[in-house]
């Protein structure tokens, strides 16, 4: 495995030849990582970012891995289009995801046969994300409230809207919502509504 310590800024495409090993950016002070309109690619390994993770620029930032992706700190979407893709590994966002511009910053996630988990809020009532699309996963978990222009989630097995303890999770969009899976779970007072 490879471990980086300290703040990390990436301004050009990066390929990590991990050969199945993991790549971790971790510090006791949770140093930030900023990627500016770049692609981070691994062949088979996993990537893990313990600090805050920020995309920047007006084009596209893409993280593409053969293995799992873990984002422990808050994620800020500054790029207009943001793709997180794993061949078949789990993708976990442990903290809040937010955008820098209302209804603009798009989030696309694809995990193949892996699980996609949003453990905290996605977007905010003050800054909705743009379109959110989860195009492939075995299971998708929304464990925090979601605010976006639209949400489209496709999973083989299940899409679940609930906290880890089964509590209510709301999804608020200004456009369409679509969920496709064998099982769709909406917990408690879960709210799906359209606002303008």
Please tell me how large the radius of gyration is. Answer: 16 Å
* Poorly predicted sequence stretches spanning 5 or more consecutive residues: none
Q: Pairing-aware structural class of the strands and helices? A: mainly beta
The coarse overall form would be globular
Question: What profile does the largest beta sheet have?
Answer: 10 strands, parallel
Q: For the terminal residues, how far apart are their CA atoms?
A: 47 Å
Q: What is the count of β-strands? A: 24
Query: Secondary-structure element order, as H and E?
Result: EEEEEEEEEEEEEEEEEEEEEEEE
Strand content: over 45%
Helix run count: 0
How confident is the prediction overall: mean pLDDT?
A: 81
Please bin the fraction of helical residues. under 10%
Structural features, described:
This protein has 196 residues and is an all-beta fold. Helix content is 0%, strand content 51%. It has no helices and 24 strands. It has strands at 2-4, 8-10, 14-16, 23-25, 33-36, 39-42, 47-49, 53-56, 60-65, 69-71, 75-77, 81-86, 91-93, 97-99, 106-110, 115-118, 129-136, 139-142, 146-154, 158-161, 171-173, 177-180, 183-186, 192-194. Strands 3, 6, 9, 12, 15, 17, 19, 21, 22 and 24 form a ten-stranded parallel β-sheet that branches. The mean pLDDT is 81.
